[in-house]
Amino acid sequence: MTTPVVSPSAPSPSQRVSRYTRLDDCKVVKTQEDEDWAVLRCEAQGGIGLTLNYYDARDDLELVRPGRPPVQIGIPNLAGGGFNKLGDTVEWCGTVEGGAFRPDALIVRNNAIENSERPERSTSFLTVIDIAQGCAVAQVRPGSGQNERARKIADWPGRPCLREGGAPP
Q1: Whole-angstrom Cα distance, residue 23 to residue 38?
Q2: What gap in Å lies between CA 2 and CA 13, rounded to an integer?
Q3: SS3 at position 64
């Protein structure tokens, strides 16, 4: 398990930090035994709630932001709506202000089936979510430096939201 990236001294207000939520630790709040779906509540960070929705072999995340309606991200639709499985951990990216963590982006691994004729082959994307907009802003394809590329994208707020298929509007 990766530990949070925090300097030994208190971070400056502009310094980026990461915190982590393990999806395995999310608690089931709703399910139906004879149907293939579940709703799980995950550890909140910086006042932002996170819900994991599982349905028909697809995983998605929902953000619960104070004073705003919850918003489902639509992660399975980014790779064409096929089956997917999220990774074990969500990375919350943000700053520390007045001792409080202020997340502004999430990074989550999305193992997606892009080709329904080859369901045994998944692509391991990193999906970057802008918390303020409540949407995915990038899907970083596998390759050298994938984590670093995703973190750089997370550091740039206000990127356009992706639409189905992973393309910007």
Answers
A1: 13
A2: 23
A3: strand
Radius of gyration of the CA atoms of the chain, in A: 16
Starting at the earlier edge strand, list the strands of the sheet with 123-130: 16-22, 84-97, 100-112, 123-130, 135-140
Mind listing the pLDDT tens digit of every residue in the chain (169 residues)?
A: 433 443 334 444 468 999 999 999 999 999 987 888 999 999 999 999 999 999 988 999 999 999 999 999 999 988 777 899 999 999 999 999 999 999 999 999 999 988 777 777 889 999 999 999 999 999 999 999 999 999 999 998 789 999 866 655 4
Distance CA 58, CA 117 (A): 17
For residues 38 and 31, give the distance between their C-alpha atoms in angstroms, rounded to a whole number.
4
Pairwise CA distance, residues 127 & 118, whole Å: 22
Two structure tokens written together for 30? 């709703």
Alpha-carbon 15 to chain mean position? 21
- pTM, full prediction: 0.86
Alpha carbon distance 83, 133 (integer Å): 25
DSSP string, 32-46: -TTSSEEEEEEEEET
Other beta carbons within 10 angstroms of residue 161's beta carbon come to 16
